[in-house]
């Protein structure tokens, strides 16, 4: 059998997976045509998602079984807390997002659902389960962003959200995540593999609901 664990997980998460990575919201981004109100609400909610996601990266860092894995995870933490965070601040300035919406906005249902999945995984998940949720979030974002045309939209709010997720470093990080989940997944019994599959499917559904919430 040549199918990897991550391919197995992804294939069993169709048709949601393809619906996420070809979502109309992403086509709107490529064309620079996401309305300002949708882009604002999407980024405001996503900043709250990123907060939870950063905590989950910390959980992965703590749960990893070797130093080289911790180094790879720490590299991603560095990006989320520097380039990605300054992107959010510049985008919020450009979109006129006030302090309250940066710090404690009213959360959409889709954001709450994602937050619950992440905090449960954070509190109770094994390293494999934490990697499963991280992999869905990062791999779906790489896959939609890689579909972007060479000519990016002019508005940096749209353009940089694409390039943050399709640059060579992000590609290597996602490749690493998949290989790491394949490595750890190889030691799981059938019951634990099935738990990862349910989580993978659930997280993929959360990604789809998140995009749907912000599509006009
Ligand atoms: C909802 C969502 N999923 C994945 C990513 C990429 O980490 C993101 N920024 N937002």
From TrEMBL:
Where the record annotates domain Thiaminase-2/PQQC, the positions are 11-212
One GO BP: thiamine diphosphate biosynthetic process
Quote one Gene Ontology molecular function term: thiaminase activity
A Pfam family of the record is TENA_THI-4
* Gene Ontology cellular component terms for the protein in this record: cytosol
Residues binding substrate: 46, 84, 138
- Report the catalytic activity: thiamine + H2O = 5-(2-hydroxyethyl)-4-methylthiazole + 4-amino-5-hydroxymethyl-2-methylpyrimidine + H(+); 4-amino-5-aminomethyl-2-methylpyrimidine + H2O = 4-amino-5-hydroxymethyl-2-methylpyrimidine + NH4(+)
EC assignment: 3.5.99.2
Query: What does the record give as the active site?
Result: 207
Instruction: Specify the pathway.
Output: Cofactor biosynthesis; thiamine diphosphate biosynthesis
Q: Which UniProt keywords apply?
A: Hydrolase, Thiamine biosynthesis
Q: Which InterPro entries match?
A: Haem_Oase-like_multi-hlx, TenA_E, Thiaminase-2/PQQC, Thiamine_Salvage_TenA
Family from the record: Belongs to the TenA family.
What is this protein's function per UniProt?
Answer: Catalyzes an amino-pyrimidine hydrolysis reaction at the C5' of the pyrimidine moiety of thiamine compounds, a reaction that is part of a thiamine salvage pathway. Thus, catalyzes the conversion of 4-amino-5-aminomethyl-2-methylpyrimidine to 4-amino-5-hydroxymethyl-2-methylpyrimidine (HMP).
Its recorded name reads Aminopyrimidine aminohydrolase
């Amino acid at each position: 059998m040549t199918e990897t664990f991550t391919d197995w997980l992804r294939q069993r998460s169709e048709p949601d997976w393809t619906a996420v990575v070809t979502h109309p919201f992403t086509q709107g981004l490529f064309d620079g045509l996401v309305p300002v109100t949708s882009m604002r609400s999407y980024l405001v909610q996503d900043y709250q998602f990123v907060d939870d996601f950063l905590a989950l990266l910390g959980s992965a860092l703590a749960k990893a079984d070797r130093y080289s894995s911790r180094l790879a995870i720490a590299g991603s933490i560095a990006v989320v807390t520097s380039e990605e965070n300054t992107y959010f601040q510049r985008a919020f300035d450009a979109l006129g997002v006030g302090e309250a919406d940066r710090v404690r906005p009213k959360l959409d249902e889709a954001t709450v659902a994602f937050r619950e999945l992440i905090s449960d995984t954070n509190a109770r998940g094994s390293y494999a389960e934490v990697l499963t949720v991280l992999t869905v979030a990062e791999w779906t974002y790489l896959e939609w962003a890689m579909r972007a045309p060479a000519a990016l939209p002019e508005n940096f709010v749209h353009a940089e959200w694409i390039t943050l997720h399709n640059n060579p470093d992000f590609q290597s990080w996602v490749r690493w995540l998949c290989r790491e989940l394949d490595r750890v997944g190889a030691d799981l019994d059938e019951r634990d593999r099935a738990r990862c599959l349910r989580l993978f499917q659930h997280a993929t559904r959360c990604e789809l609901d998140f995009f749907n919430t912000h599509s006009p």
